[in-house]
């Protein structure tokens, strides 16, 4: 059995459903996006990730058939007993496997939604589930103030599943800090924090460092900014492209190496959709960025509100 040696994880958000907001999907996926096409592609990505030493897999109820595809891959690989699986609840996938669906996912952070979706996740992943995140918890969805929900989450925690939150939006830092304050039964409730951090939107960085210092595990998502920090991206920042060229590495490796350099980052997720992308992303673990490169990259950061407004405006494709 290969031993996992990398701090990368693999996320299935972009490969287990036909539409997503990552750029370049026409080139990456083409028109072959049937359930069976994406099942096969997902399994190829998981094979490549495992071979690269990746041992953390990120899925969610709203990622199309991600949990189903992962469960099938695990069933076909009984020798794989050393991966940790994190899933998320709080969004429902409603896209009906259509690229042109008017709505692809619907948010619901109620106790009823948690109970329903936990049962769905358990039916597919059973005891393999290691972490369950509230999907995109914010201060205004109520998930961070709902005592009844916290009691239900604590029951899951007490059964041995780590409970966490994922965050999005310009107020991520506030959500992270609020999550860290919550205790149930005299113990912290949320001990896994998954947040968007990349060189274009690094504002949550100090809060993530605080989370790590408090003993929570920190998972970085969207390190390549939904494709904006990948080779050939039309909206890649010129300075980042220049720095990558100077270092002789692809832009995705620069972006992921910068995320790996953040204090307290336990895992940085790859959102690769084919084995070649997996290999390139995984190679970032061997990139040691010089300090001046990180300092120069600070200049590409965007105002958080503008970054998230642009992200919200991205079309599903």
UniProtKB/TrEMBL annotation:
SUPFAM superfamilies: NAD(P)-linked oxidoreductase (SSF51430). Gene3D superfamilies: NADP-dependent oxidoreductase domain. Residues 42-301 form the NADP-dependent oxidoreductase domain. It comes from the Bacteria. InterPro entries: AKR2_Oxidoreductase, NAD(P)_OxRdtase_dom_sf, NADP_OxRdtase_dom. It holds the Pfam family Aldo_ket_red. This is Aldo/keto reductase.
């Amino acid at each position: 059995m290969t031993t996992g040696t990398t701090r990368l994880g693999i996320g299935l958000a972009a490969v287990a459903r036909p539409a997503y907001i990552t750029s370049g999907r026409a080139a990456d996926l083409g028109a072959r996006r049937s359930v069976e096409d994406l099942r096969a592609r997902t399994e190829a990505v998981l094979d490549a990730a495992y071979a690269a030493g990746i041992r953390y897999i990120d899925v969610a109820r709203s990622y199309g058939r991600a949990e189903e595809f992962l469960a099938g891959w695990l069933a076909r690989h009984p020798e794989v007993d050393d991966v940790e699986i994190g899933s998320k609840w709080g969004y429902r996938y409603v896209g009906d496997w259509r690229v042109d669906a008017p709505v692809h996912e619907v948010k619901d952070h109620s106790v009823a939604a948690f109970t329903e979706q936990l049962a769905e996740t358990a039916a597919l992943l059973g005891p393999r589930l290691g972490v369950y995140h509230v999907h995109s918890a914010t201060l205004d969805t109520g998930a961070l103030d709902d005592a009844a929900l916290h009691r239900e989450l604590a029951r899951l925690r007490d059964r041995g599943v780590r409970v966490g939150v994922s965050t999005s939006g310009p107020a991520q830092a506030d959500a992270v800090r609020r999550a860290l304050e919550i205790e149930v039964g005299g113990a912290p409730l949320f001990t896994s924090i998954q947040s968007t951090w990349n060189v274009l939107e690094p504002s949550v960085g100090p809060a993530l460092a605080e989370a790590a210092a408090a003993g929570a595990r920190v998972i970085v998502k969207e390190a390549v900014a939904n494709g904006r920090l990948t080779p050939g991206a039309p909206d890649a920042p010129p300075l980042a492209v220049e720095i990558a060229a100077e270092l002789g590495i692809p832009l995705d490796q620069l972006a992921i190496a910068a995320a790996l350099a953040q204090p307290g980052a336990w895992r940085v997720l790859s959102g690769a959709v084919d084995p070649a992308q997996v290999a390139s992303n995984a190679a970032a673990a061997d990139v040691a960025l010089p300090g001046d490169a990180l300092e120069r990259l600070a200049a590409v950061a965007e105002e958080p509100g503008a970054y998230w407004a642009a992200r919200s405006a991205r079309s599903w494709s």
